[in-house]
Amino acid sequence: MTETKQIIHPDKDRFLGDENPFEQMMSRFDVAASLLKLDPGLYKVLRNPEKQVIVSLPVMMDSGETEVFTGYRVLYNTSRGPAKGGIRFDLGVTLDEVRALAAWMTWKCAVVNIPFGGSKGGVICDPLSMSPGELERLTRRYTASLIAILGPDSDVPAPDVNTNERVMAWIMDTYSMHKRHTVTSVVTGKPLEMGGSAGRREATGRGCMIMAREALAHLGRSLKGSKVVVQGFGNVGSIAAQLLQQEGAVVVGVSDVSGGLYREGGLDVNDVIAWREAHRYVAGYPKADPVKNEEFLTLPCDVLLPAALENQITKRNAADIKAKVIIEGANGPTAAAADEILDRKGVFVVPDILANAGGVTVSYFEWVQDRDGYFWTEEVVNQRLEEIMVRSFRHVLEMSQKHQVNMRIGAYTLAIQRVAAVHKLRGMYA
Ligand code: NAD
User: Fold this and answer.
1) Ligand 1, residues 119, 229, 256: which to mutate, most atoms within 8 A of Cβ?
2) Given CA atoms 270, 274, 280, 282 in this order, what sign does their dihedral have?
3) Is 201-355 the same fold as 4-184?
4) Considering the domain 201-355, what is its CATH architecture?
5) Which atom of ligand 1 is closest in space to residue 308's alpha carbon?
6) Is the Cβ–Cβ distance between 326 and 338 less than 8 Å?
7) Active site residue 190
């Protein structure tokens, strides 16, 4: 018999105390709920996820050994429509993190006013050390374990950290095999050939670019010539950097898990992407200065775009940040304790639940197209994305001005108001 090993969380204390992502989310939720004078019953409802599932996933590794991975799926709130949220493969995944990400998805879908609730999934694994075959077997087992929850009308996954179109294709295939017919709309972020949407891969980065442009315009400035630093050089960060450069911004710094790069006169983003494709990481790129990740966020720039993981801007580094505008490409990159420091410094922060909502917006377009069986051109997708992002920026700005709060609390207030309105209309089934 082959040995069976349980993979446990190697870094389970990563989010203790004030850095627990769910607590971070809740501390902002509480401020917005009190501004809205939220009904106490509804307050209790919205502080709790609707459903939390933990699955053990036996997977045959290439060596012939069986490993058992732990997976999560949290449906935070489905009052406005089917749950929507990505799947993350990472060693740092925790239930608290997935719960926070599911709540953020709920607020995000409400901020951009698309008819979805929020969910998120994660599997504790190190995808970079796994073969494509191992990843495929893990993905299929995870999908099969959640078969009763997933569905175009109930819960629709998408890519997140370390998952991509390939993984989405396996999810769609596994789900369809169980249902005995092809169901494209069960997942978004799929390859174009099998029901994906034009513009989906670029959507989150494009939304970030639009938010940077709107934020600078609000401050009487322009993207042209503005210096930008981007943390995280994956789907969101590298595409945002590319589009920002196309719009005339000067990308002076980029980083990934291997380290950072800085060039005062500006990097050639396409050249750095080519280097990453050839060498897996940005480290070692010869035409820029290397920067340690600890120093990266405090580099001189006009716009900082964190697009990696949670809790990167904290009370330890917030005071040293030079950017005038922060566009949160990542979910939860700013710890709650840093908000006040950034406010005092007059930094204009476009919060995650608005800044990175381009991805879920085009996921919504993909779901609509799959259900219709009729596909839009990239121009139509981009134009509709532009309309939704610009309108949502204006709504959040108006809310923040009305309540005299920053953009983050403005966004939470708008989202909670919209979710609460539906709860009130639907009433309580008790
Ligand atoms: P990805 O896996 O494609 O890229 C993540 C990048 O972050 C990689 O370049 C990685 O090396 C880097 N990274 C990891 N740890 C780092 C560290 N400590 N310092 C610097 N860089 C580090 O993931 P992604 O899809 O681009 O997601 C990035 C963030 O954006 C996540 O917070 C995710 O939840 C959020 N997000 C993604 C989407 C989407 O459509 N993909 C949508 C909304 C929000």
Assistant:
1) 256
2) negative
3) yes
4) 3-Layer(aba) Sandwich (3.40)
5) 7
6) no
7) no
Pairing outcome for strands 83-90 and 66-77: unpaired
**Domain coordinates of the chain in residue numbers?**
4-184, 201-355
Q: What is the pLDDT along the chain (430 residues), one digit of tens a residue?
A: 333 333 333 333 344 345 789 999 999 999 999 999 999 999 999 999 999 999 999 999 999 999 999 999 999 999 999 999 999 999 999 999 999 999 999 999 999 999 999 999 999 999 999 999 999 999 999 999 999 999 999 999 999 999 999 999 999 999 999 999 999 999 999 999 999 999 999 999 999 999 999 999 999 999 999 999 999 999 999 999 999 999 999 999 999 999 999 999 999 999 999 999 999 999 999 999 999 999 999 999 999 999 999 999 999 999 999 999 999 999 999 999 999 999 999 999 999 999 999 999 999 999 999 999 999 999 999 999 999 999 999 999 999 999 999 999 999 999 999 999 999 999 988 7
- DSSP per position, 378-415: HHHHHHHHHHHHHHHHHHHHHHHHHHT--HHHHHHHHH
Catalytic entry in 84, 108, 120, 190? 120
According to the CATH classification, is domain 4-184 in 3.40.50.10860? yes
* CA of residue 236 to ligand 1 center, whole Å: 6
